[in-house]
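Folding problem:
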Amino acid sequence: MHNNLKYSISSALLISAIFTSTDSYAWGQNGHRIIGKLAESHISETTKAAILPFLDGESLAQISTWPDEMRSAPGEFWQKKSSRWHYINAAPNKALSLNHAHTHAKESVSNILEGIHYSMQTLTDAKSSLDAKQFSLRFLVHLVGDSHQPFHAGRSEDRGGNKIKVSFFREETNLHSLWDTKLIENQNLSYTEFAQFIDTNNSELIADYLQSSPTTWLEESRNLANKIYKSTNEEIGYSYIYNNTPIVKTRLQQAGIRLAGLLNTLFDPSAKELETALKMNTDQQTAN
């Protein structure tokens, strides 16, 4: 990986509005690391070997936060293009659709679904450079996580809950931040502990999670966001935590399992559907 990618970290369907760079973070650092750590437990040995050159000595948990850390990096892509990769705004009850014309160049990507598919295409294209594949793996790991945060398929008018103020034990925050960070931090666990606690080897549950596609994940998030909008009051207390923390844990668990399944689908020809890979046919892997 070029030094400017590796070391500049510290300098770090219906589209209707672009979030500002500070608005569209999802899951916070710990949430993304939990998802990366979970995925590490479920990728095959073949996949581990295949992605090794793209990790550049880091783990999936480590690279999971990179696209957020790069938000402040100089350059037109990071300053004007990258934020739209992290979310999608869609009307309720309408199917999300993919614009294939936007998945062939990173500058053309206009939402998270297109970003996921651009990354998948780049990783499986023998003509892609090492830098392009390293970039795409980092984004893919991150965007699978983002796609499972309900408010990354939220409403454009409130910027995915960012403009909805709530009080969390007398601390002023917003609905988006509550879900991406505070409900996770409230568990007082490190990302490795959290990942260990919610990991699963339940084959039936894993099969259920993997019988899906990136579009499914975003539709799930949109449906959850619509319910959360209706059930959230300005004051957040213990009952809210009790009722919604299981949802947060499930979304993190699903994201980790599905990330592993997606990587196995892309990199391990022997991956078995509904066991170690997503239920996606060849066309879906490259174009859906």
Q: What stands out?
A: Confidence is low (pLDDT under 50) at residues 1-24, 281-288. Strands lie at 165-168, 171-174, 235-236. The first strand starts at residue 165 and ends at 168. Residues 8 and 73 are 7 Å apart (CA to CA).
